[in-house]
């Protein structure tokens, strides 16, 4: 099976709507768990086996980075076997890190392993400015000094503090993961991180690190304590399912109706979405790890006012997809984006299809319309691509989504899964 997905030229998707969805699929492993866990494998030279890893462009970018750092990585179905190939190399090429922000989290582990590191500064992306100041300020408290030169972060491990307290100005997912993955190998250092992120992916990362021998308490709460150890060991670990993939298909089901069944879904990870479904009157059933969405006419659904927030609040990564649904619900809905305040690139594209959405500050006001019509669209990022795909499947007529390859960064086996739900789309380079 070909695993490497390179995104050179941006492809496009052609969709003719409206279509109905009915069928059953299984949700893949979580992208946003796999990436920080893969970065953390740099903390040991022993063999690590990871299960339920999604075959995504971003995962392959992280594998490329690990191989540059001296790892040997091989796939077996949806498992990865990671071994030390040579001494850890902590000077990484510019390209892959620049390409994917999550890879910045290798900086701390590499600096601890080698005493220094040189890693590209990650770029922003179309969902908003994405500085790394919380990361660098926290690493500094852990004894790692950094300076930015020629687009690279040069870091040096200068001292081993005994006790460290980092209070994050905002519960950043990336900064929380980066600081935990660094503090675990600071022997005899006690680190407390307050106001940290509580996302399920943070808990998954900590459970993985604990299986390597790390000592961590409080993961899943806003205060995490880490007792640094001298050495971490090889392990075998299965990552959690992707709650954002599950939420995306659940919203698709609510828009396209009939009946879809999603297996491998953890209810606690998506209850903020189920809460919204309750308020709207979406007909869903959650049994064990299976979510069933049975369509009812959208005219019977109610508008809602939603705010995005850090977990356990409603995730910003489902905001564009929910907006596609709300654009077809009679009445006035609103979505306030509190995590990436300018994350509204999908609005103009949905309006191009006949939606009625306008943005005031960081709130989108949505007046429901009875139908959308197909149009030529531009996708700008991963979740916006998913939202435009959902809208194009319900719209009248033909839609072309250009620049759509972003979608392969976060949705594994997309065509296969859509086919299993009797949905037809055409992809071309
Ligand atoms: C993670 O990004 C996810 N990515 C994002 O998912 C997700 O949107 C985001 O968390 C929020 O849930 C991965 O897990 C790989 P943050 P991250 O640090 O860690 C500000 C997707 O579609 N901030 O929690 O980069 C920042 O600008 C992706 O799968 C600083 O100001 O997000 C933002 O406003 C997109 N300084 C807020 O915090 C910092 O040093 C939250 O960002 C760090 C963050």
Automatic annotation (TrEMBL):
What InterPro entries does its record include? Enolpyruvate_Tfrase_dom, Enolpyruvate_Tfrase_sf, MurA_subfamily, RNA3'P_cycl/enolpyr_Trfase_a/b, UDP_GlcNAc_COvinyl_MurA
Cellular component GO terms, alphabetical: cytoplasm
Q: Tell me which EC number(s) this protein carries.
A: 2.5.1.7
An example GO BP is:
regulation of cell shape
Indicate the transmembrane segments per the record. Answer: none
> Does Protease show up as a keyword for this record?
no
Q: Where is the active site?
A: 125
Question: What does this chain do?
Answer: Cell wall formation. Adds enolpyruvyl to UDP-N-acetylglucosamine.
Which NCBIfam families did the record assign? Answer: murA (TIGR01072), PRK09369.1 (NF006873)
User: What protein name does the entry list?
Assistant: UDP-N-acetylglucosamine 1-carboxyvinyltransferase
Q: Which organism is it from?
A: Marinitoga hydrogenitolerans (strain DSM 16785 / JCM 12826 / AT1271)
Query: What is this organism's lineage?
Result: Bacteria, Thermotogati, Thermotogota, Thermotogae, Petrotogales
- Name the gene for this chain: murA
């Amino acid at each position: 099976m070909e695993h490497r997905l390179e995104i050179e030229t941006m492809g496009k998707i052609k969709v003719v709507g409206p279509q109905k969805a009915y069928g059953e699929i299984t949700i893949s492993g979580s992208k946003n768990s796999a990436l920080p866990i893969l970065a953390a494998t740099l903390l040991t030279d022993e063999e690590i086996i990871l299960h339920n890893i999604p075959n995504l462009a971003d995962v392959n970018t992280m594998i490329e980075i690990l191989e540059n750092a001296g790892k040997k990585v091989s796939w077996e179905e949806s498992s990865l076997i990671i071994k030390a190939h040579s001494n850890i190399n902590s000077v990484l090429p510019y390209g892959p890190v620049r390409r994917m922000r999550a890879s910045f989290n290798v900086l701390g582990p590499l600096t601890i392993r080698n005493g220094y590191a040189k890693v590209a500064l990650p770029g922003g992306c179309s969902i908003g400015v994405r500085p790394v100041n919380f990361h660098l300020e926290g690493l500094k408290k852990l004894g790692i000094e950094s300076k930015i030169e020629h687009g690279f972060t040069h870091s040096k491990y200068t001292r081993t503090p005994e006790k460290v307290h980092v209070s994050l100005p905002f519960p950043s997912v990336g900064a929380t993961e980066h600081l935990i993955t660094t503090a675990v190998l600071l022997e005899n250092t006690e680190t407390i991180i307050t106001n940290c992120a509580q996302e399920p992916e943070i808990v998954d990362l900590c459970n993985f690190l604990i299986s390597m021998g790390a000592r961590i308490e409080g993961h899943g709460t806003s205060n995490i304590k880490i007792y640094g150890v001298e050495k971490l060991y090889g392990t075998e670990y299965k990552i959690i399912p992707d709650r954002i993939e599950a939420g995306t298909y659940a919203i698709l089901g609510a828009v396209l109706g009939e009946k879809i069944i999603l297996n491998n879904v953890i209810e606690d990870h998506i209850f903020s979405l189920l809460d919204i479904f309750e308020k709207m009157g979406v007909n869903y059933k959650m049994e064990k790890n299976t979510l069933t969405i049975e369509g009812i006419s959208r005219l019977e659904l109610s508008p809602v006012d939603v705010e995005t927030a850090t977990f356990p609040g409603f995730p910003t990564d489902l905001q564009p997809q929910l907006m596609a649904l709300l654009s077809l619900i009679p009445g006035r809905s609103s979505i306030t984006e509190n995590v990436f305040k300018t994350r509204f690139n999908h609005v103009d594209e949905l309006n191009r299809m006949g939606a009625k959405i306008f943005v005031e500050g960081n709130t989108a006001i949505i007046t429901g319309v009875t139908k959308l019509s197909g149009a030529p669209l531009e996708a700008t990022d991963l979740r916006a691509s998913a939202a435009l795909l959902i809208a194009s499947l319900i719209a009248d007529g033909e839609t072309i989504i250009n620049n759509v390859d972003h979608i392969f960064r976060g949705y594994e086996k997309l065509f296969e899964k859509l086919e299993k739900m009797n949905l037809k789309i055409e992809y071309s380079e």
